[in-house]
Amino acid sequence: MYSRQKTELDRLQAKVAKGNMSRREFLSRVSAMGLGAMAPGLYMQSAMASPKHGGRFRQGVTGGATSDVLDPGQILDHYMLNVQFGQLRNNLTEVAPSGELVPELAESWEGSNGAKTWNFKVRQGVEFHNGKSLTSEDVVDSLNHHLGEDSKSAAKGQLGGVASVKADGKYGVVVELTGGDADFPFILTDYHILICPSNGDGTIDWQSGVGTGGFSLVEHEPGVRTLTKANPNYWKPNRRFFDEVETLQIADSAARENALRTGELDAMNNVSPKTADLLKRQSGINVDSTKGNKQITLPMLTNVSPFDNNDVRTAMKYIVDREQWLKVVARNYGELGNDNPIGPANFYRATTDELPQRQYDPDKAKYHLKKAGLDSLNVQFHAAETGFGGSIDAGQLMAETARPAGINIEVVREPDDGYWSNVWMKKPFSACYWSGRPTENMMFSTVYAGDAAWNDTYWQNARFNDLLKMGRVETDKTKRREIYVEMQQIVHNDGGTVLPLFLQDIFATNDKVRYPDVIAGNWELDGCKAAERWWFA
Amino acid sequence: MSSLLKVILQRLGLGLLTLFAVSVIIAFVVELLPGDITEAILGQTATPETVAAFRKEIGLDQPAYIRYLDWLGGILTGDLGQSLASKRDISEFVGTRLSNTLFLGGLAAAIAVPLALLLGLLAALYRNSIFDRIVNFTTLTSISFPEFFVAYILILFLSVKAGIFPGISNVSTDLAFSEQFYRTLLPALTLTLVVLAHMLRMTRAAIINLLSSPYIEMARLKGTRPFRVIFHHALPNAWGPIVNVIALNLAYLVVGVVVVEVVFVYPGLGQLLVDSVSKRDLPVVQACSIIFAAVYILLNLLADIVSIVSNPRLLHPR
Question: Do A262 and B163 touch (CB under 8 A)?
Fold first, then answer.
């Protein structure tokens, strides 16, 4: 075969492998190359190509800092999430690319006593990178790492309902909760709750970076670069194809794109929606996006005037032109939000029949304002790029569309430094984002429950809080759906959050990289697990 | 020569005093910034309990002046302390970063200084010619653009289009020297374009200034060739101002390259300082600032010494 034909054929096969080309198109293109007789066979070959082993995967990612540590409780951004959760270590349970819960280091589990007692069976024959065998002691100490008064773990809140964690023999772990929670195994998929080797005295060894993951640590320079190499004893079948993974912290998006274009990188996360279409036009570069629950929100503090009045809150929900935001803020890489945090990757999301899409409607806003006894309203919108990218421009847009309703919005630019401590949850109306949670219960418990630490609107709704408790222990799927749909309706109608958009994650790879048809949307780069799920052609 | 030694010792003493003042100011200013390290690190995930546990662990419950005195005690015994965020010894990771920064700055200086001197001399020699105009115009253009723009233009043409250089300069310790040199060349070129104009124009102005003095006229009347007039007669007297500008630019190459480091993903000291300020990691901020201040002081001292040595009048003050 001529080499030019070969390159073209490789390109077509790659498209098929990624699901970007139909069988029909492939056959006609290959026939045009004069290879008609071979075409069907070639199609099968590429559609079912089994991943190849080898190569050094170089990914450029954001969110790393010189202050990063290997402590799983202190994972705060994408870089360490990718390194620890995606390469070095495993959880007890895992969210599969399809969104369902699958076993990871826990082979199986069982809830009893009204979902208050959870028995986990730890997988046998798993070895840490240093040769130590995984036992229940490692699991117990790893969970306890996030509990207790002295813990500064970011997962402390997630595990707030845990009363005790105890070993039951060499491979059994029993977790007692203070209240029932049918979704508890889902919580254990959280990227902080990674299993590290125990020191034998109740603490874990996180400093060495040793885990059970597909890659072991070779070199780690915080905020700059991490090099890992394949774990030869990795227990997961049909995973981990690269020999080495090099992760580079690249904060500047133009630098990331340049590096990808000049062949210094194989993949990058966080493609700016503004440049995604330009990048797409480059030959040899593939730009793709995943739908997840990442959402931008505008929390209004419901315990202070004027937002303590639900009519004012509802008026605010009507003055945002969501279609326009989708175009301007997300460049169409997203979908409309409906003032409801349950997103495209959740299971019990309300349908548009159950919860019709709220549209921009200044007349309705005016009507609700009047109902609250107001002719006009002056509010300040506090925003910084840290809140969400483009929030200041979006605020200006909102100020324009609010004017016909008699609402005057002044956009206040806040400093990025200290934004989460001094503005968010402090100023009555601000900009924020959430990456979303895999289950309804986790999302509501984290941000909307009356007693949640991050209840960022100080919203108290008795019915909602009751339903949340009922939903946690309910195991019947139909009843659960009813509960969660009603909760979504309550948040939509009474909650303190304007939720204008769900955002997609955009990533780019060069044409050597292959990935499965279904990729995860819970975190960037295939759920941050590109290292163990992707391969080279 | 003993008076020169006295000057040096005096300057070094003053330098130490400056360093002390810098450390006090830095400690005070970081204290003024909104939020502390616990809030900066935990960010959106901060809850009152985790913040309290974190503060206690790193000793932030102590008043600021006690923490400062602790740090001062450490540094006087040669101990830079530990990063609050990662608990790593600062000397351990600042060392690599510093050598990276010095390598980049050194490479840029090795290109920029001779080039600036040569072009400056030629521009003075052929002043108001087409050559002079072109040199002035191009260097002024390159200094007028922001650094990141110059960097992007170089990346676009030299790495994306022509493919001569890599798009990022991610050097690491396991690279061979030649590879490190090759990867550092593009950011060094960017810096060269940024600092060239300043030094070049000072050289040109200093030489032109001298060319109108009577002794140069005398040399010319004797029939000395123009090149010899400049190298032999004018340049020795022009060193003072030129070296001062060079010193300032060299200092800039070490302390002012944050933007270039970010664009090229070069793991230098500037990036570390920015990271540490945004995380309020005071000991690391202090260590970087002291290093930067010391570089400034030493380079300026060096410039002064060169001016004094090159000008005997300063060597024997009345």
Answer: yes
pLDDT in tens, chain B (318 residues): 567 788 888 888 998 999 899 889 988 887 787 777 777 777 666 777 777 877 887 777 778 888 888 888 888 888 888 888 777 888 888 888 888 999 999 999 999 999 999 999 899 888 889 999 999 999 999 889 888 899 999 998 998 888 888 888 888 777 788 888 999 999 999 999 989 988 999 999 998 888 888 998 898 899 888 888 888 888 888 888 888 899 889 988 887 788 888 888 888 888 888 888 888 888 888 888 888 888 888 888 888 888 888 777 776 765
Distance CA A365, CA A342 (A): 24
Angle A3-18/A39-47 helices, nearest 10 degrees? 50
Contact B172/A219, CB-based, under 8 Å?
yes
Backbone angles phi, psi at A171, to 5 degrees: -130, 20
Count of CB atoms within 10 A of residue B313's CB? 8
Using the Cβ of A157 and the Cβ atoms of chain B, whether some distance falls under 8 Å is answered with yes
Enter the ipTM: 0.79
Residue in the structure block whose two tokens are 């080495």: A244
d(CA A27, CA A37): 10
| Mutation choice for B interface testing from A203, A421, A422 by most B CBs within 10 A | A421
How many helices and strands in chain B, by DSSP H and E? Answer: 15, 0
Helix/strand/coil for A246: strand
Q: Are A267 and A261 in contact (CB under 8 A)?
A: no
Instruction: Establish if A65 touches chain B: CB-CB under 8 angstroms.
Output: yes
B19, B297 Cβ separation under 8 angstroms? yes
- Of B34, B174, B276, nearest to A417 by CB-CB distance is B34
DSSP symbol at A356 = P
Question: Which candidate, B301, B294, B300, B298, places its Cα nearest to that of B21?
Answer: B294
For residue A61, the model assigns a pLDDT of 92
In three-state secondary structure terms, A228 is strand
Phi, psi at residue B109, to the nearest 5°?
A: -65, -40
Residue B262 in tokens: 């970010």
Q: How far, rounded to the nearest angstrom, does the alpha carbon of residue A351 sit from its chain's CA centroid?
A: 22
pTM (global) more than 0.90: no
At A312, list the tokens.
């004012």
Q: Report helix, strand or coil for A291.
A: strand
Asked whether the beta carbons of A332 and A324 are under 8 A apart, the reply is no
| Rounded mean pLDDT, A233-249 | 93
Q: Give yes or no for A418 touching B (CB within 8 A).
A: yes
Question: What is residue A1's predicted lDDT score, i.e. its pLDDT?
Answer: 43
The answer to whether residues B63 and B55 touch, using CB atoms and an 8 Å cutoff, is no
Residue A48 predicted with pLDDT over 60: no
CB B307 within 8 A of CB B243: yes
User: Which of chain A's residues have a Cβ under 8 Å away from the Cβ of B47?
Assistant: 156-157, 453-454
For residue A333, pLDDT beyond 50: yes
If you count DSSP H runs as helices and E runs as strands, how many of each does chain A have, helices first?
A: 18, 19
Q: Do A255 and B276 lie within an 8 Å CB cutoff?
A: no
CB A514 within 8 A of CB A535: yes
Indicate the residue of B96, B262, B281 with minimum beta-carbon distance to A251: B262
| Lookup: tokens for B65 | 């002046």
What amino acid is encoded at B315 in this protein?
Answer: L
Rounded-to-integer distance, Cα B28 and Cα B33, Å: 9
Considering Cα of A209, then A213, then A217, then A220, what sign does the dihedral take? negative
H-type alpha helices, B126-223: 130-144, 147-154, 177-211, 214-221
Digit-coded pLDDT (tens) for A359-384: 999 999 999 999 999 999 999 999 99
From the list B113, B60, B117, B48, the residue with the least C-alpha distance to B85 is: B60
Q: Is the pLDDT of residue A166 over 50?
A: yes
**Could you tell me which chain A residue has the CA closest to the CA of B84?**
A67
